[in-house]
Amino acid sequence: MPVCILGAHTTVMAQCILQVRRALHSVGFKVHPFVKEALDNGRPVVALESTIITHGMPYPQNLSTAKEVEEIVRTNDAVPATIGILDGSIHIGLQNDELECLAKAKDVVKVSRRDFPYVLSQGLSGGTTVSGTMIVAHKAGIPVFVTGGIGGVHRGGEKTLDMSADLTELGRTPIAVISAGVKSILDICRTLEYLETQGVCVATFGESREFPAFFSRQSGFQAPYKVQNEEDAAKLIARSLALQLGSGVLIAVPCPEEEAASGELIEEAIRWALRESQEREITGKALTPFLLQRVNELSNGKSLNASIALIKNNARVGSRIAVALNKIQRANGRRDGASPSGKAFSAPRPVVIGGINVDFIAKAKGSAIVEGGQTNPSTVRQSFGGVGRNLADCLSRLGKTPVFISAMGKDEHSESVLRYCRHMDMSGVSQLDGHNTATYCAVITGSGELRLGLGDMEVHQQITEQYVSGFRENLCRAPLVCIDGNVPVSTIQYVCQFARDHHLAVYYEPTDVDKASKPFFSDSWRALSCVSPNLRELRAISQTLGHPVPTDLPSKLEDVVKTAVALVLPLLKELHCVVVTLGQHGVLVCGQSMDGSVSLHPGSCNKTTAGELLATHYPAIPVPMEQIVNVSGAGDSLMAGIIAGLLDGEDTNHCLQMGLLSASLSLRSYEPVSPEINATSVSMEQVQAQKWLGTKTWKLS
């Protein structure tokens, strides 16, 4: 087999391009670590505006109210994300000192849609209005936003055409706004009419359709609809997002009855304040803050007390709606609004089909295990594995939240699995009475090598083609499907045929030597896009296909690469690419050339036409032997990192670096997939910080 060496090459140019790409994507945005973690793990997040802090209340009530509102959101099992602008950067989630900075600031800008370009370009600070907060929250993938009250058509607006940008934003930004209705200083009748014109679904919260007037519970106007509780509100929002109408939803929550100020008192104060504003010719952005301040003064502080009470009440109701919405989206096996990674919930999600195991890991304290019945001193830990679960776990931690299809028993282990996997979408996992959740016992040497594995995996046979066929919609929409060798042969054949019929990309993870050949018992394997075996699994696959295979496998890197290439070449006549995991030697990626490197992206090359074939070796990130804790999930973390890069549209080099970085983190973890893996620890910055050894590429002919 002729092999032409191209030699070691650097990836500096590719890395620079990727760095610029990522910088463009993230310019001007700073996401609080707690918010980022919640979004990455699919937890409910509630957006909060900052003009309440900068323009809505005096200091120190503005600061104390902001902190109390955030705490209310946390108490109701959601994560608060107060949005504001500091020194030209949009912050999604604010630290306490940043909240205080905005609360004390005197010359900050009220930032609506039109103001973003100027404020950011000049490096200014500002509080985001309802419309400004809606834009940022939607871009961040936060579907629920809580505020006090929205803007509307000003009194006399039929002459002045003075109306809030909040209304047009509700007509073009798909997000749910939880508010106390429309400020009573506005023309509520015309505001409701304009919302109808904009196609905004408006509903009151509670027993009555009486539209609240911000400070008071009655306005004299009826909302089109009502939702009686958080669950009904969440259903309404979920349906709106699923329809992809492009418009928002307004849920109007009345002020708590015991806190509501007298409507007559407030209305009288509003009339006086409006007359004063006209006499002093106060208009535009200055009008609402002036009116709110004067109304508070004229009502002897009752309007401010009511305002604080209603904002807290909105936060309580809104966070519960966010939690209910999150449950609906998980139960539906898809996300119809916004995703943990900040992309639209309506965007297709990858599908992972495979096994779940409860793992018991026994690691000897000595470098060698003494056999013959003796008890070897060791540490024994319980963790949660299974190749499919590991892949779905790692992808979820990297912000991809796949649809995970699997099966487990309904027994003492299943609840532990669900608790541990709460950061994942487990709605596609079937719990079966009369079956044992799969368990696996691994005996590992002191150096981290697997010595013996024992497993009860019968429940994996329940991942049947009939069960998987219930997820046809998810499969059809998936940008990529990954299936492991734990799944029955008939199910693998079904998925391969489905992929062939619907032109889907399917990646096969062989799992182990005994299961590696399942797709290769028939022509099913020809529908696969990629397989990711180790050298032993690759030999088993080649043997199943009737190709000559070596009896013994080499250990030196040069010989390992030569053997792997010889075994891979026949597969590349049908497969898009083959990723051969080489343990401590790293990974060998084989496939068709695309711009001088192996193409991992399905569809970028035509596998049915002859083209230049390449094999590129990527060395593993060195991990000191004393830091290696567990090798069982490193390969799965590698593939999940590669797939995450693929889903982000990254090039081959960056995908492999993400995978190798994920694998190195899992090697150091007692868990198969390291809890340290996230979009920050496996980011472009972390990739750039690694001292990557040079790759080497061979041209295959």
Question: What structural category arises from helix and sheet content?
Answer: alpha/beta
Q: Give the DSSP E fraction (strand runs of 2 or more residues).
A: 15-25%
Helix content: 25-40%
The CATH architecture assignment of the largest domain turns out to be 3-Layer(aba) Sandwich
Explain what you see:
Strands 1, 13, 16, 17, 20, 21, 22, 23, 24, 25, 26 and 27 form a 12-stranded mixed β-sheet that branches. With 701 residues, the chain is of the alpha/beta class. The protein folds into 2 domains: 289 residues, Indigoidine synthase fold; 350 residues, Ribokinase (UDP-N-acetylmuramoyl-L-alanine:D-glutamate ligase, 3-Layer(aba) Sandwich), CATH 3.40.1190. It is elongated. Strand 4 and strand 5 form a beta hairpin. It has 24 helices and 27 strands. The N terminus is likely disordered.
Give a nutshell description of this structure:
The protein has 701 residues and is of the alpha/beta class. The protein contains 24 helices and 27 strands. It folds into two domains: 43-331, 3-Layer(aba) Sandwich (Indigoidine synthase fold), CATH 3.40.1790.10; 351-700, UDP-N-acetylmuramoyl-L-alanine:D-glutamate ligase (3-Layer(aba) Sandwich).
Walk me through the topology.
Blueprint: E1 3-9, H1 12-26, E2 29-31, H2 33-40, E3 45-48, H3 51-56, H4 61-75, E4 79-86, E5 89-92, H5 96-104, E6 109-111, H6 116-121, E7 126-128, H7 130-140, E8 144-146, H8 157-160, H9 165-172, E9 176-179, H10 188-197, E10 201-205, E11 225-227, H11 230-243, E12 249-252, H12 263-279, H13 287-298, H14 302-331, E13 351-353, E14 357-364, E15 378-385, H15 387-397, E16 403-409, H16 414-420, E17 429-432, E18 439-444, E19 450-456, H17 465-469, H18 472-477, E20 481-484, H19 489-502, E21 506-509, E22 530-531, H20 535-544, H21 557-568, E23 577-581, E24 587-594, E25 597-598, E26 613-618, H22 634-647, H23 652-667, H24 684-689, E27 695-700
Parallel strand pairs: 2-5, 3-4, 3-8, 6-7, 8-9, 9-12, 10-11, 10-12, 13-16, 13-20, 14-18, 16-17, 20-21, 21-22, 22-23
Antiparallel strand pairs: 1-27, 4-5, 4-7, 14-15, 18-19, 23-24, 24-25, 24-26, 26-27
Helix pairs in contact: 4-5, 4-14, 7-9, 11-14, 12-13, 15-22, 20-21, 22-23
